[in-house]
Write the structure tokens for this entry.
Amino acid sequence: MPITSPESQTRAAAAALIREYYAAFNTGDSDAMLSFLTDDVIHDVNQGERRHGKDKFKAFNARMDHNYSEELKDIVVLVSKDGTRAAAEFNVHGVYKNSEDGLPPAKGQKYVLPAGTFFALRDGKISRVTTYYNLTDWITQVAG
């Protein structure tokens, strides 16, 4: 059996944390997602203000769950050598259920959107979540 270094164990634990976070997302378990976050988590979304703390993250998730039904597929997780940073690339398979202000009206449109998230990790939890997707691509898919 190969001997693993503390560095590789840290990286493996970080990758497992991100995979578990996304498994909770895919099952719609917002409470489980929150359990993977630090209390002072920073949440940066593609369009919008920076949010600080679990309460704002929870409110964001509630709004998203109300307006969208999404599943992430083809998730690839990358972790820095020291395990303090990670990134994930994936495809969002979604349904636009309820309209959001400033966006096209929702009529149950389906979409598939490539996206990615950058993470900062601290003490075995996620301390920053920064997500990117192409909003113009999404609007084109749901407006057509």
Q: What stands out?
A: Helices lie at 6-26, 30-35, 54-67, 135-143. The mean pLDDT is 93. Strands lie at 37-44, 51-52, 68-79, 85-96, 109-122, 125-133. The chain has one domain: 6-143.
